[in-house]
Specification:
Mean pLDDT: 80
Oligomer: single chain
Distance between the termini: 80 Å
Helix content: 10-25%
Strand order of the largest sheet: 10-12-13-16-15-14-17-18-11
Strand content: 35-45%
Order of helices and strands: HEEEEEEEEEHHEEEEEEEEE
Number of strands: 18
Radius of gyration: 23 Å
Largest sheet: 9 strands, antiparallel
């Protein structure tokens, strides 16, 4: 049997490359980093920071940046950027078409000549979990502070694993207050029809046709909880399956919500999505903004003026 010709090998390589390029990229699993510590030998290392389209991410430094010493690669993917007063901050706003998983490399140089002389970051696109503020430090910290932050990070990771396991166990039907919302048991807990008061973002990929919010104060056998049940119309050409949700109040505080739906919403069809968290709504300064994103791709749903009944909650916690 004759060996394949060089031309045939080249064609196979091109076909393989095209097939790989055609595969949809996965939703980035980047963390909303809020603090970065730079070592003296940090040159060449680059931390990843989640950013979202049309939303500002601010880097705050403990040393001034040199004037004009900020570089972006590739250029042209930011809607705007600016150095703050005295060069102690950097504000970046990705363009509206900044895609999930897209990466822009930003390099800054410090003005004081101390090590490290520069720092590099990757701006990683995410549909909703962009970091609002990142503190960057070049100074060493005490060992007890490092241990405390490490313990907190490990505890958060364990909680995430437990939440994930619970969500998988509830996949056939959600439990707790989310289950109540899914079955529309309005008389058992505080509930409110919020659809008429919603503010719909003009770029929403789906249209909300119904919306109910649910709340339950903390009791002897259950934690305080809140949930929402949305009926959504998918006008697009592809099915839509929720991957995550976040609720932001008027102070900027965010709560990540569990999200559940029985199946993907088919093109041109209606479907229901339930979101919720074990947290009393009285702890949030609502009206709030609810944002949902899909498991693949950039299509999101943003709803403003989301409220929760507090008739059975008592006074808000301080």
């Amino acid at each position: 049997m004759l060996p394949p010709s060089p031309g045939a090998l080249l064609a196979l390589a091109l076909l393989a490359g095209a097939a790989q390029a055609a595969e949809p990229s996965a939703v980035p699993r980047c963390a909303a980093t809020s603090r970065i510590d730079l070592a003296a030998d940090a040159t060449g290392q680059a931390s990843e920071v989640c950013v979202s389209p049309d939303e500002t991410t601010t880097f705050v430094f403990d040393a001034s940046l040199a004037a004009g010493a900020v570089e972006f690669q590739p250029e042209g993917r930011l809607a705007d950027w600016a150095q703050g007063k005295e060069g102690l901050s950097l504000h970046v706003i990705p363009r509206a078409d900044y895609l999930p998983g897209e990466r822009v490399r930003v390099t800054v140089r410090f003005a004081d000549g101390a090590a490290p002389a520069s720092a590099t970051f990757w701006l990683v696109g995410h549909a909703a979990r962009g970091t609002r503020r990142v503190e960057v430090f070049r100074q060493p910290r005490p060992a007890d502070v490092l241990k405390k932050e490490k313990d907190e990070a490990q505890a958060e990771a364990r909680q995430c694993q437990e939440d994930k396991a619970r969500l998988l166990a509830e996949r056939k039907e959600p439990g707790g207050l989310m289950g109540t919302a899914w079955l529309e048991r309005k008389g058992e807990v505080g509930s409110e029809d919020i659809w008429r008061g919603l503010k719909h973002h003009p770029a929403n990929a789906l249209r909300a046709k119904q919306a109910m919010s649910y709340s339950q104060p903390k009791g002897e056998t259950h934690p305080g909880s809140m949930a929402a049940r949305l009926e959504l119309l998918n006008p697009g050409a592809e099915p839509w399956l929720v991957a995550g949700a976040v609720l932001k109040d008027t102070t900027g505080a965010e709560v990540e919500l569990s999200a559940w739906q029985a199946s993907a919403i088919a093109p041109g069809a209606l479907g229901f999505v339930v979101v919720g968290a074990e947290r009393e709504p009285g702890q949030l300064a609502c009206p709030c903004t609810l944002k949902l994103w899909e498991s693949q791709g950039p299509r999101t749903v943003t709803l403003g003026n989301v409220t929760f009944s507090r008739g059975n909650q008592g006074p808000a916690r301080k």
